[in-house]
Structure formats: C-alpha cells, structure tokens
C-alpha cells in the first residue's frame, strides 16, 4: 500500500533510502485459495497482482535454486524481493547495493509483522544461487537481481 506524494514520490509502509524504493516484489503463489499457482508480480502503485508465469514447474525450480529448501515451494506463498539497482545507484553509486539489502530487510520484517497479525508464520530465505534464481525470474543479474525471499504460511495450531 502506498500514497503518491506530488506525483514524485511514494509513501509506503516500508522505509527506503532516499525514497528510491528500488525493490520489486514477486510472489510465488503455491497454495492460495482463489489464485492459480504461479509467479505473480506485485504492482505497488496499483496495489495489484499480475501473473507472470502460471502453471509450470517454476516453484520446484525456485526451491532447487534456493539450496533445495523444499518449503519454498510448499509454502502458501513465497515472497521474492528483487532489486532494480539503477533506481538506487543513479543517486548513491556503489553504496546503493548496501541500501537495497537494508531496504529488503525492512520489507521482510514487515511481512513477519503482518503475517503474525493474521496467524501466519514466515521464514526469511537468503540461501540461494543468484545466477539460477535470476535466470528463473528472467532477471539479468546486473541491473535487476533477486535479493531476498520469504516463505509464508498458516501457522499450525496445537490441534494440527
Ligand atoms: C538474512 C537471513 C537469511 C536467512 N536465510 C534462511 C534460509 O536460507 N533458510 C532458512 O531456513 N532460514 C533462513 N533464515 C531464517 C533464520 O534461520 C531464522 O530467522 C532463525 O533461525 C531464527 O528463527 P525464527 O525466525 O523462527 O525465530 C534467514 C534469516 C535471515 C535474517
């Protein structure tokens, strides 16, 4: 969610260095009622999800690229934050690489908090093969690259 300020900047629920907001959020939807499994992209300005790739083996491939962590494909959904580094680096140069990782930490922490509020749990994931994951997402690995993942799902109750 966000608010556009004077047509120039967006106010969001996460901070971002210089308000650059260089992260794009993808969702690997695995088991969400009403949504076909597949990769979706979140459009922050329109607060919308748009399908990127549906009905393929992508979830399995992403889990393999993420050090074979199968829960990446078994979650309800796995968030994938990717950097569009030019949005940050035109202003901050090399230091922009540090900032997109800090920004991703904020985004992921907010997911932990929002998930807790609706009875879900999250597991952050940073163990992944950059080249393999970027290729699966169609990112070139230089201008755009995956930064951080987080698997999300309902918490088990004591009754199962
Ligand atoms: C930067 C970062 C990277 C992480 N990468 C992984 C990962 O690749 N796989 C995983 O199972 N957990 C990963 N975690 C989750 C931590 O292992 C987990 O937060 C920690 O063990 C504490 O458990 P809790 O969050 O359930 O309290 C990561 C956490 C952070 C902050």
Task: Summarize the entry for a quick read.
The chain has 160 residues and is of the alpha+beta class.
What is the secondary structure topology, with strand pairs?
Layout: E1 2-5, E2 9-12, E3 23-29, E4 38-43, E5 48-54, H1 58-65, H2 71-74, E6 77-84, H3 86-92, H4 95-117, E7 120-125, H5 130-137, E8 144-154
Antiparallel strand pairs: 1-2, 3-4, 3-6, 4-5, 6-8, 7-8
Helix pairs in contact: 1-5, 3-4
Which descriptors apply to this entry?
six-stranded antiparallel sheet; 33% strand; globular; 5 helices; 8 strands; alpha+beta; two-stranded antiparallel sheet; 160 residues; binds flavin mononucleotide; NADH Oxidase
């Amino acid at each position: 969610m966000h608010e556009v300020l004077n047509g120039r900047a967006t106010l969001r629920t996460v901070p971002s260095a210089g308000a650059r907001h260089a992260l794009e959020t993808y969702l690997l939807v695995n088991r969400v009622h009403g949504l076909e499994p597949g990769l979706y992209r979140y459009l922050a300005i329109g607060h919308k999800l748009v399908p990127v790739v549906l009905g393929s083996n992508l979830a399995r491939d992403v889990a393999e690229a993420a050090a074979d962590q199968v829960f990446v494909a078994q979650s309800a959904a796995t968030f994938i934050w990717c950097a569009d580094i030019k949005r940050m680096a035109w202003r901050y140069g090399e230091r922009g690489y540090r900032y997109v990782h800090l920004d991703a930490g904020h985004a992921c922490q907010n997911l932990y908090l929002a998930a807790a509020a609706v009875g879900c749990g999250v597991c952050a994931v940073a163990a992944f093969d950059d080249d393999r994951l970027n290729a699966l997402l169609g990112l070139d690995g230089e201008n755009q690259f995956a930064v951080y993942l987080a698997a999300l799902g309902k918490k088990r109750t004591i009754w199962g």
